[in-house]
Amino acid sequence: MNKILIAVAVLSLAVPAVAVGQTEDPAPTRVKHQITGLFSKDREMDLRAALAEVAGIKLIDIDFVNAEVTLEYVPAKVFPNAKPEQIIQRLDAMLKSASHSTFGVKPLRSVPKERLKLIEIAVGGCDCKACALAAYEAVYKLDGVETATVDFREGRLTALIDPEKADQSKLEAALKQKGVTIKAR
Question: For the whole prediction, is pTM greater than 0.85?
Fold first, then answer.
């Protein structure tokens, strides 16, 4: 009898206790999100640093070309009491806080890539990351702009747009409004 009690005691130490009705922690989920603020390759390290500040979020992959990241997290732990439609909103707020509002999260694009049009605009006056960010912010918020990049070294802004909602003149007008010089084509 004593041997049985000792065996039960040893086993109870080896097996973690689970309260009645409580389940083990759920496995992390891998989720893709579109990232705003990822306008140049130089910004990848900035994004890594910002995401390292967000508790409970693990960066798996950065897809610069599509401005997307794959993250791993347990939604119920990172976003307690959040409804599914609130998760992107809360993640966006967390990333903005960690990055001083230079990165954000939005849903993945809904327009198929083959329907998007690539626009390239030669820009001047974007001689640093901050100026490139200003040019980027002028266009990425426009309806119909799916992704945008700014290369201040080459003086070029590129954007993938939904041609039913945006066009090159709309992008150029937004850039001019921010004081970005449009170079002759």
Answer: no
